[in-house]
Every structure is written in C-alpha cells, then in structure tokens.
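User: Predict the full complex structure for these chains.
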Amino acid sequence: MPDQRISVEESKLPEQAAATSIKAQEVHPERFFTRFTLLQRYMHAIMFTTFLGLAATGLTIRFSTNAWAQHFALAIGGFGTILFLHKFCAVILSLEFLYHLQNIAVRILVRKEKGLLWGPDSMVPNLKDLKDIIGNFRWFFGLGPKPKLERYAYWEKFDYWSVFWGMIIIGFSGYVMWFGPFFGKFLPGWALNAVQIVHGEEALLAATFIFSIHFINAHLRPDNFPMDTTIFTGTQSEEEFKERHPEEYERLASQGRLDQQATTKPPTWLMNFSKVTGFTAVLIGVLLLILTVSAYFRE
Amino acid sequence: MHAQTDCLSCHSDITMQDASGNHVGVDADTFHSSVHGSLECSACHTSITAYPHPNHPQAVKCAACHADEAAAVVGSVHEHASDHPCTSCHGTAHAILPKDNPKSAVYPLNIPATCGKCHGDAAMAKQHHLANVYPQYMDSIHGYAVSQEGLLVAANCESCHGSHHVLSHTNPQSPTYKAAIPATCGKCHGGILTQYMAGIHGKAMASGNQKAPVCTDCHTAHTIARPTMAQSTPVCGSCHQAQLSTYRDTFHSQVSNLGSYVAVARCSDCHGEHEILPASDPRSPVNSANLVKTCGRCHQNANAGFVKYEPHANPHNRQLYPALYYIRLFMVLLITGVMTFFLLHSLLWLIRSLIEKAHRGSVKGDK
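Assistant: Here is the predicted structure of the two-chain assembly.
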C-alpha cells in the first residue's frame, strides 16, 4: 500500500517522477522524530539482555525436572554455571535499576522536572489512561473510534510499572535467597520460604508477560509487524508518530515543538542491526515461553 | 591304587563308550589331581567289586560320604533340578577340586560364573520367574570386587544365598528373607548393621514392621546402588512421598536436578544414612538444637534465624503454612489475572486490527 501511495504522489509530479529513482528519497525525505534518548535505548538493551539471561537460567532452575532444563544446564557447565550467570545478570540489572532510580531522583529533586511526575510525558497513570482503556475496548467491539494516545500508552505504562515492581519484588527476594544467613538474622522463618515462592512466581509472570504480551503489544501486533524498531533506533517516522501517538503529535505541533524532536532517518546498518537484534530477542523469548508454558501446565 | 590301576587299564581311554553310548572314559591325570584322586574307584562306584562288572552299575551316590550337604539340598530351590544336584555346580565328577583351589568351580572368585551358567541365562530366568540378576551382580561393586579386583572377601552368590540349602527370599528361613537381610549383609558390614539397628528403620524392622526398609530396599539386592548420590531422593521418596514432593519444590532439589558439579543437600545430608533418627531425638541432625550445625555444613554463617527455614514446607497446606498458602494464592491469582486481561486485550486488538485492515482494503477496492 505505501508503494501505491508513493506512485500516486509521483504521478502528481510528473516532472520530478522523471528523475532517477535513487534520488527519490532526497526529493521526498521522510521525516523522523526522536522518541527515545540514547541513554534510554542503552538502558533497554542492557535490560533485555540481562532479562533474557535471567529468564533462560531462572526458568531452567524453576523447571529443573524437565529434560530441556537438564540438557541446557549440562551443556553450559552444570548448575554452577547456571547460578553464576543468573547472579551475574541480576547484579547488572540491579545496578541499572539503581542508576535509573538515581536518574529519576536527580531529575525530580535537582532539576525540578515537573513533567516527569505528572502530565503527558509522565509514566504516572492518569485519568486519560483509564479513558483510553475504556475507549480502546469500545473500539475493539466497534462501539467507538480508536482513542488518540499520548506519548505513553496505558499498556506501555503498565510495562514500565510491572518491570519496576518486578525488579523490587524479584530483586529483593533473590538477594534474600542469595544471602540467606544474613537476612535470617532479622526476617521471620517463614519469610525465607516465602521469598522462594514470590521470586519464582513473580519471575514466571514477568517472563510470560514479556515474552507474550510485551512482544505482541510493542513489536508484533499487526500495526507494528514484523518488528517495531523504535526502541533500538530511538526514532519513529512521521507516519508512525501520527498513527501511534496522535495526541502527542498534535500537542507538539500546536506548541510548535515538533521541529525540536525532528531527526534524520536512521542509517541502514542501524535499521538492520535493530531488526536482527529484535528478532533474536523475540525468538529466544518465544522459545522460552513455549518451554515455560508447556512445563507449567505439566506440573 | 591297585584298584584304580585295574579300572584305568580299560577306562583311561577317554573316548570309551558303553553300549548305550555313555562316555565312560576317565582322564587319569585329571582324576589324580582332583580332590577325590586318592580314592579307589569302588569308593564311589560301590556296585562294582570285581571284574567283569555288571553292564549297568548303580548310580554314584555322593550322599554316601557327603551326607550333610546332600541333606541340605533337600528342601532347597535346587532339590528338583533336572541336572545332577552335585556336579552341575562342582563340575565333572572326576575333576572335582577342593573349594580353595583357584581352578575349582566353587572357589569364591569362580562362584558367580558357576551360578551364572544357569542364572545368567535370560531364558532360564524367565522360565523360573526369576529376575535375570547375573548381569546386575557382575556390574555391582560386589561383582566388580570379585571379577576385577579378585577379592576373596567380596560377596559372591554364596555369601548371601548360601550354598547347598538355597531358599527362596519368600521363605522365612532364607538368609535373603526380608527380615533376615540386615543380619545377612551385616555378616560383612558389621559397623553399618550396628548403625542401622540403632536408627528408626532398624528399630521398626526389629519390631516386626514389614514396611520398614532393610538394606536391599535402598541399595537393591544385586545392583548394590549407592543412594547417597543423586538417586537418593527417589529411593527415600518411594516411601516418603509427601517429603519428596515438598523437597522437589526447594532450591535443594533444583540444584540436585541440574548440577552434577555442585554439592547440594539431599535426604541423607540432613537426615543421616543408616542411623536415621526422628527429629525429636536430641542426637538427630535435624533436631532443632542441631540445625545450625547441620545446615552450617554447607551454609557458612548459618544462624538461629536462618535455620527456621522450613525445607519441607507445603504452600498448598493452609492449616500448617497459612502465610505461604496465601502468598502463593496471591501470586497465582496475580499471574492469572494479568495474563488473562492482557491476552484478551491482545486478542480483541488483533481481531479489530484485522477487521479494520479488511475494511480499508474493501473501501480501496470499491474505488
């Protein structure tokens, strides 16, 4: 369909259409807009890499009676390697989480960025999110128009906060298990049992959620298929911007701030790198999801 | 010796046959070096006293001299064997060697092969409804000690089953009858027998509890498994099913399933092995007073708070573990709730997207 559109436009401009096709891009430069900063892209990259490592090793431990778990453990050097990699990824992810907290704190307390806690650019849920949820369900059933979303859709905020909550819950329970004798000094006995249940179940939720819901919503749903690379390239095209975040687009346009976010089209190598990285992560995740779900329902 | 010489003047021809085709030749050298080599022929062949002798002399009766052994065979599982009850184990009649001769069929190191002539035959085992245990024994630590290390003291078939009076393990008189097993194994493993009898399993066995495990229940009879390693949990769990189930939920079990390279607590590491004592016994390693020491064998810095961890907690049991029960319930509801909502959300979204796409396509088509 996009090809059709271009050909229609080209037919409107016969003198330019006569120019060589190589120059077509220069004649009609697609506008791109920054959505994520370089820091945010690196943060996401570190997070999904360590998360995949944590999930692959953690699910192996959780479903240790399964043949695939035992073969995987054996292949990479037994339980010692599994636990080392799990802790290694956990420490890196913990450091990233602490850095994020520090970053948030500085932006709120030192730089007094009010937009971080409230408003259209904030991750904090608000009334519009509730309206968007209801509006989206109405749209699903054909009862209303598609809601016009702001910078962060309600499912994106859910992604953020579920990871935020998950880091605290899974992280804390993990460190209690790691340093059992230390935490045993001030936690009640049953808490040492509880952390294992909480760690395992919350991690199971995190893995199944990321490997199905997040993948579908953020990368694989028909509008984004086969891969939304925004988090890797940091940019989205004008068409994508208008389609996905119309409220934000119109807000920036009305404030005359659209140009501030305008950027160039990501280079081909970055697009390709993003697709390869994204697909690799999705493939690993979906494989783990299949193993997890089949193992979970066999328990 | 005269009589031998007389007989051997004819019978030393080893190809000699009687009218019915029976081999009646005797290898003089082999016979002379056999355990019976100093006896006169008529000592066994009692019906032959003069020459010419009867065409059909009476059968030799080993029992004439070996009365005790012959009596022992009566009532044993071999009593009605189709083969000769003596020579089938002791070898050819004129070549029988004393049992301390390394070439004897009943020399300790040769016994497994001798019994294996019949008991290593899978078809024969099947016919008599016996497990084909010969290969299991040969691969066991006992079989290895006999066949590879040449240990005279290692257990061979006779050590446990006896020789002339072999009885079925279902016979209460048998040394392999369940209640007799500890004493049978204890003939060699005396120290372990003492520990076992002092433990809860030994006491239960001694009090007549038929369900109490004896040596072979954990170690098996012929394979002689070493359940101190990874196989221990299913072995103990075959009786202690609830404990195995709760153990399976723990990190200990997960490590055990995955790691052959990491030491981890299995049943015996906490509960002991042969002298297993109930937790109420102050000498038990799982008595609350000893937990810091027991857990501390692996967990450095184990302290009174740490050992309050319940290694067999069951979060499905609301009465015993209410906190864990509700925590688990909350987590399960959380997973179910979140996943149900978002899967439904994604599914509806997918359907709507496809409808819109089809709609847009048809609008375009109309134009």
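Chain B has 20 helices and no strands.
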